[in-house]
Amino acid sequence: MYKETNSSKIVKWSLIGISVIFVVLMLLLPLITVITEAFKQGFAVYEKAVTDNYTVKAIWLTLEATALAVIINTVFGLSAAWSITKFQFKGKKILTTLIDLPVTVSPIIAGLIFLLTFGRQSPIFPLLQEWDIKIVFAVPGIVLATIFVTFPFISRELIPVLESRGNDEEEAAALMGAKGWTIFRKITFPHIKWAFLYGVVLCAARAMGEFGAVSVISGHLRGKTNTLPLHVEILFNEFQYVPAFAVASILVLLAIIILIARSLIEYNGKKKV
Amino acid sequence: MNFKKLTIASAAILSLALSACESSDEQKGASTAKVEKQTLTNVSYDPTRELYANYNEAFAKHWKEKTGKDVEITQSHGGSGKQALEVANGLEADVVTLALEFDVNAVRDAGLIEPGWVKEFPLNSSPYTSTIVFLVRKGNPKNLKDWGDLVKPSVGIITPNPKTSGGARWNYLAAWAWAENQYNGDQEKAKDFVKKLYANVLVLASGARGSTTTFIENGQGDVLLSWENEAFLALKDYPNDYEIVIPSISILAEPSVAIVDKVVDKRGTRELATEYLNYLYSDEGQHIAAKNHYRPSNKAILAQYKEFDPNVNLFSIERFGGWDKAQGMHFSNGGIFDQIYEKK
């Protein structure tokens, strides 16, 4: 390392200073505000807010949508990443580009897409009515919207890892007579598991916080189609500031759990590679 | 922590979440087995949250006494126009209780409500009314007494956007009517007045609740053009910070209620939905409305609540030839509101 001159010291400390001030202003202060506002009227009020029937239902709905999104995106993400990196086929570029679509499209548009596809204006709506299938303004719509906005996360993590590794080991295994599933289990998956878990964590984090797409398609039916982020907004609009912040603190807590999981995964991943 | 432990932990969390889903399914199964339990969805607009929270409780009791059946009512709230659009798009509401006739007409035009719904319930299907008042900061520092004071250069106004908010349309029309009276019906002068008024608007939020939050929580502006019930609510929460100014003339805002015919026929809830809306006109329903700062349509009950100024000079939407006409002239694309707001 080069010797620190006076001027480089100034640069160093002012850069650190800027970063710290930025983190404090943009991250710590809002976090502290959420927590202090949540406990402003004491723990009893906080407890009442987070054990409120509508809040509990919102928590379960959020977890349900997140779990389903993670499961479905895992299947999709693994197959997509696997097929894109290990096989040659026509339209591969198009598929890769399409996978990125949900990240680039605004969530509101995503919600509207589903509203137009399954809502009353849609040509398939009479069919859905006949079979008594409810999608928009019901739980399936929320799950669909959540899956849509989160589906690139897992495959996006896997593709670079798989690409950089090449096919040599798999080809060797195949030559030695291993079947597809064995190759995946014994050769491919051990290499990608940390990237895969990281993708799952990102996917879960994004799914829990999703607001825009879900807001369009939810209908805000209390106790039925209100997820946690929507519930926070509703409470805030009802001038119920303490409960709003209390519920927000649950989301913060979930985010912190996910951050810890992420750090653990990163740490383990580095150790192994 | 190694990979195996992580996998086991995440599997445990997943199965927990899934079992929760299952258990809620079981609950659903149990409730369908008990035939007595009925459900009703009421899609309403922003400021009625507190009103319907109270009313639903009272109605559930009434329905139980009348029929012996339990009823569970689900609420949805948001900007009135947006809510109407969601119902038109397939949000399954048994009844809509919206800010104005025009929004219910939007649901009618989607083919969900039969024409002539306005006459289905008494008093043009508006069980409670409200009006538009000024909410100003304590002591009224800018001395705002009537609509004419709002166009003074230094006044900052908070009101929602009439293109998206029901309440905002009432605000706009009230200002327009005052100007018409002031200038002896001269439409150009009225237009000029309203243009000046909207030039003073600091924040044009999309809904009434958003405007109230802007004025109260964020401390923006000198005056909030507000539903009377919203203003009372703000006054209740912050008695020392605000006061209400009643202008010389204002509009009789008639929020509309209607049964969504297509939905109740499909779900078999017409009887329940009819009673739900009818009971709003009962003494108990009227008292609940009044306690939530809506003007009851029952004059005797209205007189019992001193907070409502009986002398306020109110005119109805008929002055503008009904909602369809007012909407077309003022709020449609390229209408008067677009003209005055764009030329700012």
Summarize the structure.
The complex is a heterodimer of chains A (273) and B (344). Chain A is mainly alpha-helical and 273 residues long.
Topology:
The complex is a heterodimer of chains A (273) and B (344).
Chain A: H1 6-38, H2 42-51, H3 53-86, H4 92-99, H5 101-104, H6 107-118, H7 125-130, H8 139-150, H9 152-165, H10 168-175, H11 180-209, H12 212-218, H13 228-237, H14 241-272
Helix pairs in contact in A: 1-14, 2-14, 3-8, 3-9, 3-11, 6-8, 6-12, 8-11, 8-12, 9-11, 10-11, 11-14, 13-14
Chain B: H1 3-33, E1 38-44, H2 49-67, E2 71-76, H3 80-88, E3 95-98, H4 101-109, H5 122-125, E4 128-137, E5 157-158, H6 166-182, H7 187-199, E6 201-203, H8 208-216, E7 223-227, H9 228-237, E8 242-245, E9 250-253, E10 256-259, H10 261-267, H11 270-278, H12 283-291, E11 295-296, H13 299-304, E12 314-315, H14 323-331, H15 336-342
Parallel strand pairs in B: 1-2, 1-3, 5-6, 5-7, 9-12
Antiparallel strand pairs in B: 3-10, 4-7, 4-8, 4-9, 4-11
Structure description:
The complex is a heterodimer of chains A (273) and B (344). Chain A has 273 residues and is mainly α. Helix content of chain A is 81%, strand content 0%. Chain A has 2 domains: 38 residues; 231 residues, MetI-like (MetI-like fold, Orthogonal Bundle). Chain A contains 14 helices and no strands. In chain A, helix 3 runs antiparallel to helix 11, helix 8 crosses helix 11 and helix 13 packs antiparallel against helix 14. Chain A is globular, with a radius of gyration of 23 Å. Chain A starts with 5 loop residues before the first helix and ends with a helix. The mean pLDDT of chain A is 88. Chain B has 344 residues and is of the alpha/beta class. Chain B is globular, with a radius of gyration of 23 Å. Chain B has 2 domains: 144 residues, D-Maltodextrin-Binding Protein, domain 2 (3-Layer(aba) Sandwich), CATH 3.40.190; 154 residues, Periplasmic binding protein-like II (D-Maltodextrin-Binding Protein, domain 2). In chain B, strands 4, 5, 6, 7, 8, 9, 11 and 12 form an 8-stranded mixed sheet that branches. In chain B, strands 2-1-3-10 form a 4-stranded mixed sheet, with helices on both faces. Helices cover 49% and strands 15% of the residues of chain B. The termini of chain B are far apart. Classes of the chains: A mainly alpha (273), B alpha/beta (344). At the A-B interface, helix 3, helix 11, helix 13 and helix 14 of A face helix 1, strand 2 and helix 8 of B.
